[in-house]
Design brief:
This protein is an alpha/beta fold. It is about 35% helix and about 25% strand.
């Protein structure tokens, strides 16, 4: 008997969602549980056990498990990830200045090796001695390696040699650039490889948690993961290329939004705890970003939906700038654990500290803020500086007030570095707390939210006035700021789609007049040409007012709170394979990609072999990802200008694309 029940799981920054889905009957059950970053299996098991219980479906009936996640996206937006060593083969220090590579690298180590290849795959001498000298120490100071070689997409031999040596000495994860992209552009390929290496441990823990839970419950179904373009890949593939899961959650939400609404044309905005993701549905399909996904300010070489991801969510850090004559409220991009959630999880430890701070005669700079360990494995704390290690040792699994943790201004910067490494969470005021004070959310401890906002009320603006009179008034200001910022984000995405990317809604006086509804002799207004689909657990409390500001209809599907999990199970496996044919001189045609480089003497023979190789490899890739290719499309682009009366091949690109539904396990 075929097991046609599919399990979809979405692990977000705040919640882990689960749905049971039938290909004949649709959504059977849904559930939510808090994401437990210290042990992801706890949140996964809580949500999945609930859908199994509420539906009455036995675990043995599940034929496919599909996972989407925003963890990788959130990590890049918040600047988090494991300490990684970048190995550059054939590049020099000046190459770090290109494509934001130096900014992304930060203080992580980099090693330059001579070597690499030319555009036709011919090698330069590889010297691995600088790596050999550094490996013993680096093996103890980093959690992963990234290897990028000059023209490695034409010949990956040097990357492979370096990778094998690193693994032999350190036994740490190694990512090679040729495994991630076949595109030229060494520094951006190196950037993508660096980010991938930082995410390996995080995604490995997530998939491992899902697999462990499935084994415990007797679920023997294959496991898939949503890629950034909305397609599905096997869990094994996602472990090797976690960078491809950036925008996994947003892509799944688009697929889910299309399924839940049936709309062909819409603006889809998904608000989570950490980010807001906005994309356009046009003709029933999302557009892919041909230039590569941009996340956390980094443009990668990852093909993904053309979605804009902003560090704005229900759990965004509330920052109050009281230096001007009127206090200003800003949100994000960093995620905090809301005070209401911290108190829900840890009880009196949070409430007692907040009440103590309120009793103090003088307000403190760190009032209402706590630090707590994230619970990630100790191995990810490798390479901490003495100051960082000392402060980290004082932080526990329960929130510790910052007024007791930090004894100097300098320690604040040290704490920020621990947060950036993903080792520590900060707790503080968020829009979710404001919603609790206003009574529009009620799942966590409201008293903690009220105490936190009362502490903030002790601040004065530049004119010496309180920033608000009551916690409710301050909460209203925070929520209004989220509404306004969300409207600007939606407009920015729409302007970019309309070819007006240079228009910044946050800086335009005219857009400010239109959104705020300010009176004047000239009245400004704006509207969208399609509805605004709001997704996320808090969508019903935010998007009606946001849509009103944009003069469009708000559509919040009944199951908008689990749209990502729904999108995870209704997607398809999509793969591509690319082979390049170049001609360095008459009578020589070189094939690169999908295997070893090959030299042939005739153009037609080279093209035929390129097509055969691309077709064969794309079918193998679809099969390796748990599906059978139901459709293969071949695309060819040939650059052969006419020179002195005859055409001369410069480059031909042969791309095979295949689509298939994942195989469902049989009972």
């Amino acid at each position: 008997m075929t097991r046609s029940v599919l399990l979809g799981i979405d692990t977000g920054g705040t919640y882990t969602d689960a749905v049971l889905f039938s290909e004949t009957d649709g959504l059977l059950a849904k559930a939510k549980a808090l994401t437990t970053r210290h042990d992801l299996a706890v949140g996964i098991s809580a949500s999945v056990d609930e859908v199994l219980h509420s539906s009455g479906v036995p675990a043995s009936a599940i034929g496919l498990v599909s996972l989407s996640t925003t963890l990788a996206t959130n990590a890049l937006v918040e600047g988090q990830g494991g300490r990684t060593c970048l190995v550059m083969i054939g590049f020099g220090p000046d190459d770090l200045k290109r494509d934001g590579l130096s900014e992304a690298l930060g203080t992580d180590p980099v090693i330059f090796l001579s070597g690499g290849h030319d555009t036709h795959g011919n090698e330069n001498l590889l010297d691995m001695s600088p790596l050999e000298d550094a490996l013993p120490q680096l093996g103890q100071a980093v959690s992963a390696f990234a290897v990028a070689g000059y023209f490695a997409v034409r010949n990956p031999a040097h990357e492979i040699r370096v990778r094998d040596r690193i693994r032999a000495v350190t036994d740490l994860p190694v990512t090679c650039s040729h495994e991630l992209s076949s595109k030229l552009g060494g520094p951006r390929r190196a950037l993508t490889t660096l980010l991938n290496a930082r995410l390996v441990a995080m995604i490995d823990r997530l998939i491992g948690s899902c697999e462990a839970f499935a084994r415990q419950r007797g679920i023997s179904a294959p496991m898939m993961v949503v890629r950034g373009d909305g397609a599905l890949i096997s869990a094994a593939e996602a472990r090797l290329r976690p960078i491809e899961t950036i925008l996994s959650g947003p892509a799944a939400s688009l697929v889910g939004a299309r399924y839940l609404t049936g709309l062909d044309n819409a603006v889809v905005s998904d608000i989570g705890g950490t980010t807001t993701d906005v994309a356009i549905l046009d003709g029933g399909k999302p557009r892919l970003d041909a230039d590569g996904a941009v996340v956390g300010g980094h443009r990668t070489m990852v093909e993904a939906v053309a979605m804009r991801t902003y560090g704005l969510g229900g759990d965004s850090e509330v920052r109050i700038d009281e230096r001007g004559l009127t206090a200003k409220i800003e949100l994000g991009p960093r995620r905090l654990v809301p005070l209401s959630l911290a108190a829900e999880l840890h009880g009196d430890a949070v409430l007692d500290a907040l009440e103590r701070q309120l009793r103090s005669v003088h307000p403190g700079r760190n009032d209402g803020r706590f630090a707590v360990r994230t619970g990630v494995p100790e191995s990810l704390a490798a390479g901490l500086q003495p100051q960082e290690a000392g402060l980290f040792a004082r932080i526990e699994d329960k929130p510790l007030p910052l007024d007791q943790l930090l004894t100097s201004m300098a320690q604040g910067a040290v704490l920020d570095r621990l947060v950036a490494r993903g080792l520590v969470h900060l707790c503080g005021i968020t829009p979710s707390d404001a919603m609790h004070v206003l009574g529009r959310q009620g799942q966590w401890e409201r008293k903690a939210a009220e105490l936190g906002l009362k502490l903030a009320l002790r601040m004065k603006d530049g004119a010496g006035r309180p920033i608000a009179e009551t916690p409710e008034e301050l909460a209203s200001h925070i929520v209004a700021r989220l509404h306004r910022r969300s409207a600007e984000i939606v407009l920015g995405t729409c302007f970019a789609e309309d070819g007006l990317a240079e228009v910044d809604p946050a800086r335009s006086v005219l857009i400010d007049r239109a959104l705020s509804g300010k009176d004047g002799i000239v009245r400004f207004g704006l509207s969208l040409d399609r509805p605004l689909v709001g997704l996320g657990a808090s969508a019903p409390v935010y998007y009606p007012e946001i849509a009103e500001m944009l003069s469009t209809a708000a559509l919040i599907p009944r199951d908008s709170d689990v749209a990502n999990a729904v999108g995870a199970v209704v997607g398809q496996v999509q793969m591509s394979a690319e082979v390049l044919v170049t001609s360095p001189q008459d009578g020589i045609f070189i094939l690169s990609g999908c295997g070893d480089s090959l030299r042939l003497g005739e153009q037609e023979a080279a093209f035929a072999e390129a097509r055969r190789r691309a077709d064969s490899v794309v079918r193998e890739r679809v099969a390796a990802n748990g599906a059978s290719a139901t459709l293969v499309i071949m695309e060819e682009s040939v650059d052969a200008p006419e020179i002195e009366g005859r055409r001369r091949l410069i480059e031909a690109r042969i791309v095979a694309r295949a689509v298939g539904r994942p195989r469902i396990a049989l009972g």
